[in-house]
Amino acid sequence: AGSGLDLVTHLDTGGLYRMGHELLPGTYLDLRSTARQKACIHIEAAGPMEARVRITTGGKRPTTRRLRLTAGRAALDLRVRAEAGLWRGVVLRFDLAGTFPEARWAVPAGVQSRSTKPIYKPTFWPCHPWVWPRRADPGPESSSELGIVVSHAVGCRVEESGRVELGVVRGGPLELGDNYGAIGSDTQPAELGLTLLARPNAARLAA
Length: 207
Prior knowledge:
Helix content: under 10%
Strand content: over 45%
Largest sheet: 9 strands, antiparallel
Low-confidence stretches: none
Distance between the termini: 32 Å
Number of helices: 1
């Protein structure tokens, strides 16, 4: 299935629900990934105007990744489906080439730049509708960068190394770091749609 767009399941004990402001005691430990599982690759379309591929893995917690490329559009559309189970979380993980000291995030009524140096490990921030990791040496017209546009609000982690993680679903039934005793879990299958946009700029991301 490849490691570029990997669905990673991790141990999720709670205590990590404050995106960007996590409290201990929370555990975030990788357990398995689709890159290390057998996968079925289905070619759904292969014409001159559009190409679509579906990648599925089986087992107790099946996953689906659908990718689409459209002629004349410098973007990759992706939709993933996964489920977590109790005490588990699933993220979509991929790595960008280069060093990324900061990322620009869409916020209500504007844009905010944040350092990729973690506040906690891991540090997730709310992401909707887009985030733009900025390279230390972007090159002419930022041609080596990608904008990430998501279908709905999710937690997103951008590391200086270029690693990006987007939350797909969480099954942590207890918030261990919450003085108010919040509980909650989501063990049903969940979907996340996103677009990886080449040569991003503020106008294209806002469109």
